[in-house]
Amino acid sequence: MKHKFSDDATMDEIMSRSPAAIRVVLQHGLLCVGCPIASFHTVSDAAREHDLNEEQLSSDLQAAIEGTASG
Predict the structure, then answer these.
(1) Cα(52)–Cα(61) distance, rounded to whole angstroms?
(2) Which residues 6+ apart lie within 8 Å of 45 measured at CB?
(3) For 17, which of 5, 7, 53, 63 is 20 to 30 Å away at the CA?
(4) What pLDDT is attached to residue 26?
């Protein structure tokens, strides 16, 4: 069963638990892969720091986790 990530999950945790999320991170122009801050930033933090739409990023990450991402 696929999980829904919690609001306090870090970007590193999300990518570690669901490697499919890495593609979404890269598609959004984030460089979280290998970044030392990824173990501290939540999706909300990353969206704010990179001026992204948090709802869209969260939705895209969840779709990847669930295996329903297109692209």
Answers:
(1) 13
(2) none
(3) 53
(4) 97
